[in-house]
Write a structure and sequence with these properties.
Length: 459
């Protein structure tokens, strides 16, 4: 069963129906569902689908030969030019989509690959009503070596699609039998990655699934972050140390440098490593909303829910899990999961806000939405606001509090939010409180057009 990706499929079909030559690049982190998206797209179309490997150019030519002729018995093309000529002959007779999946492997196996494809596009393919898809998990390669201006293929691309993790709403469709709060936890610990979502079994409880996937040596995600780092990076140990530092609370650059504590490792060098992790969407740089890009308040957070969960709970206990004591480890850390879910719930609430904004169900249409933190000049203290959304003309704002707790928020939660909002000079101020467990009676009675209460069970 194929779930979600309706927007991505619609965009690909628009390219397919354009009536002219199209070359689209598709990229995204490993396990995010790029191949399944392509398979769903081409299932009702004449397609040549070739999955490249990390093997030699000759091995890849053999694979391409099989893809062209839908056979493993055909004599291999000795030259990529001949293979591209064969594709041209097919595309001249009927409309096709030609897919090279894991394109970076193919391009790295033989240096002239990109130039040969560029020549084929310029001399032959661009005159046909056909579609080429180049897909890759190495995002830096796809962005720089394929789409970059120094690439032989620069200017040939007619579109691109960055495949992102699924939203909470879509992720929850993978396990319909679970309770709503359980779906949120499963979304939080998998980061919305389809490959991981598919590991969840409806026949097991939430606890049983988490233990099997993360806390057994045979579990899919027991060593997943380490494996991904080894596949993508040359110095996984240093990147691992940086991620671990961020996961354990070091959010500022100088804090990360101190925590890593490697010889000749300064802020400049650390910044280069962090940029690579940002390219892989493992780490994100975050600013208080409303701050300028060069703000000194920037912090670093893990952008991937699975990485956050793994480095917080699995990595510190990996030896015990390897010895078969994962059940005991999980029993010990289980009570900490609600705290872990705070950041995930903020993410879910942000997705909800954007959807309400698109559907125009809010008091005004906002321009941006995000976390805010900074100094309260009135109280002389540091304050945080979970989410703040503001209008383009800066006349209106919504201040949000997100509570993932078994306790119901009371009037004091609202009072605290109102007090924090006094820092800002918006003419119209609205308040939205999100809660996993509903709201106290006194707070419910205060609900109005300007005080919006959103129960997670009904949002």
């Amino acid at each position: 069963m194929f779930i979600g990706r309706r927007g991505e499929l619609s965009a690909l079909n628009d390219f397919w129906n354009s009536g002219r030559f199209e070359m689209v690049t598709i990229y995204g982190r490993r396990r995010v569902g790029k191949t399944e998206l392509i398979r769903e797209f081409i299932k009702d179309k004449k397609a040549i689908y070739f999955l490249a490997t990390e093997g030699s150019h000759r091995e890849n030519l053999s694979g391409l030969t099989g893809a062209i002729h839908n056979s493993v018995d055909r004599a291999n093309y000795k030259d990529l030019r001949l293979a591209l000529d064969a594709i041209y002959e097919i595309a001249s007779k009927e409309k096709i989509v030609f897919v090279i999946d894991e394109y970076p492997y193919f391009a790295k196996s033989y240096k002239p690959v990109q130039s040969l494809i560029q020549h084929a596009i310029d001399q032959k393919f661009q005159h046909l009503n056909m579609m080429i898809i180049l897909c890759g998990s190495s995002m830096s390669f796809m962005e720089n070596e394929v789409d970059g201006y120094k690439s032989p293929l620069y200017g040939r691309r007619t579109g691109q699609q960055k495949v992102l993790p699924l939203s909470y709403e879509t992720s929850s469709k993978f396990f319909p039998s679970f309770e709503r709060h359980e779906k949120a936890v499963l979304y939080g610990i998998t980061g919305g990655i389809p490959k991981y979502l598919l590991e969840v079994r409806d026949t097991q409880s939430l606890d049983e699934n988490i233990k099997r996937i993360f806390f057994t040596p045979q579990g899919l995600l027991f060593e997943e972050p380490h494996n991904l780092l080894k596949q993508e990076l040359r110095e996984p140990a240093i990147y691992n140390a940086i991620i671990c530092a961020i996961a354990t609370g070091s959010s500022k650059l100088n804090e990360i440098v101190t925590k890593v504590d490697t010889i000749q490792f300064d802020s400049a060098k650390c910044n280069k490593y962090i940029r690579v992790l940002m390219d892989l969407h493992i780490v994100k740089r975050e600013l208080p909303i409303l701050d300028k890009p060069n703000s000194k308040k920037s912090i670093y957070r893990l952008n991937d829910g699975m990485f956050r969960f793994w480095y917080k709970f699995v990595y510190p206990n990996i030896s015990q899990i390897a010895l078969g004591n994962g059940a005991a480890v999980y029993k010990h850390i289980k009570s900490q999961i609600p705290n872990f879910m705070g950041e995930t719930f903020e993410d879910v609430c942000k997705q909800y806000l954007w959807q309400e904004n698109i559907e125009k169900r809010l008091p005004f249409t906002f321009t941006d939405c995000g976390r805010w933190w900074g100094n309260n000049k009135i109280t002389k203290s540091e304050e945080e606001i979970d989410l703040l959304a503001y209008s383009k003309d800066s006349s209106s704002a919504i201040f949000c509090e997100c509570e993932w707790s078994n306790d119901k928020p009371s009037s004091s939660t609202l009072d605290s939010l109102v007090e924090k909002s006094s820092i800002f000079n918006y003419a119209e101020k609205y308040y939205m409180l999100f809660s996993k467990s509903g709201f106290s009676k006194e707070l419910t009675e205060k609900a109005s057009d300007k005080i919006m209460l959103v129960d997670f069970n009904t949002m």
